[in-house]
Amino acid sequence: MKSEKLEVVRGSGNAFRDLGHKSADVEQFKAILAAEIIKALDREGLSVRAAQRRTGVAAADFSRICNADLARFTADRLVSV
What we know:
There is one protein chain. The protein is mainly alpha-helical. The chain has helices at residues 15-18, 24-44, 48-55, 59-66, 75-80. α3 (48-55) crosses α4 (59-66). It starts with 14 loop residues before the first helix and ends with a helix.
């Protein structure tokens, strides 16, 4: 078996940029916002239904955020959540 030399490449700090996404900075910002929302739900022990009752934001939206399905969200909308 021949040993192949691998090159280690340091990432940019933005996985979306490293993967060549056009809106990398916005996507990373949205991911960070979603992570903060998830942390708040966990910290408060809230289900998506309880979060809906507390905030008026649809449970389905919280579910999408928790599943990192962020395509339907703008950064502004995530900030408002």
